[in-house]
Amino acid sequence: MSSILYDEIPSLDLNDFTQGTPEEKAKFVEDLGAAYNNIGFVAIKNHGLSDDLTKTLYQQVEAFFSLPESIKQQYEIPELFGQRGYIGKGKEHAKGRKTGDLKEFYHVGQEVTDGDPIKQEYPDNIWPEELSQFKATSLEVYKKLENAGKTMLKAIALYLGLDEFYFEDKVKNGNSILRPIHYFPIENPEEIPEDAVRAAEHGDINLITLLMGASADGLQVLRRDGKWIPITALPEQVVVNVGDMLARLTNDKLKSTIHRVVNPPRELMKTSRYSIPFFMHPRSDMDLTCLESCVDTEHPKKYENMSAGEFLHERLTEIGLKK
Ligand SMILES: O=C(O)CCC(=O)C(=O)O
Ligand SMILES: [Fe+2]
């Protein structure tokens, strides 16, 4: 096993995998595997999201979070445990913490349209009436990121020595979530809890995360030697990282790296930050039992057998979204 200490996250071109020669495709798989084995994050270009679509979604998202609190609250439905719609300021906290993060966000989930009975497992999406393009734009971005995620999972499967299509049926109509986030301005820093941060250090729950907008300052990843590395993605790149479900499946061969979003310096406290992660989840019945190929005497099995649905339920309770 290699042990590279990256100073920044590696950059890859998804076209090498989808349109490249067999050599380019193999190199993509090898580079991706090395990056996920070491730091758990890469930045990719040619992910299929156009600049225009990205811009339109950001514009809709900024307009939504600018609505009066009383309107936004109409889209917060407690019975949904934050699975769909608006989730207000300070509601979510990282696992093992009590102080809420300095953010508000909105969850858009899977729209099942092909008669798959899994539709009954998912609550309906909630759409803000005030914004004419929010629904169409977020669903279009959802599809694009889901497709890019499926391609990344093909490369991951090959790296793990599995069939290229190993994940295909597991993520079909999966429980993925698109999450536009607003890290709101802090008018009076004295009034927030002393240990409150934009997003406290955490690992993501899902298989992989595709993050639009990580080019804004603040996102950092924890390197194996304990050093925090800032993410320096370009505007046209999407950052793709390993989540806890994929780490479980691979017995930590692929690393779900701890990351956080730090507060801005005091003079910038009154500014907003936006980001839009797409959390790629499988269907709830996916078995996350460690792959046999990832367990040996040097790497004893670390995780008990669990389905994706069981793991998700456990984690949502730990982060304050589910009671
Ligand atoms: O806002 C970001 O850049 C990252 C957000 C994040 O890590 C998360 O929501 O899980
Ligand atoms: Fe995260």
TrEMBL record:
Transmembrane segments: none annotated. Residues 173-282 form the Fe2OG dioxygenase domain. InterPro entries: DIOX_N (IPR026992), IPNS-like_FE2OG_OXY (IPR044861), IPNS-like_sf (IPR027443), Oxoglu/Fe-dep_dioxygenase_dom (IPR005123). This is 2-oxoglutarate and iron-dependent oxygenase domain-containing protein. Keywords: Iron, Metal-binding, Oxidoreductase. It holds the Pfam family 2OG-FeII_Oxy. Belongs to the iron/ascorbate-dependent oxidoreductase family.
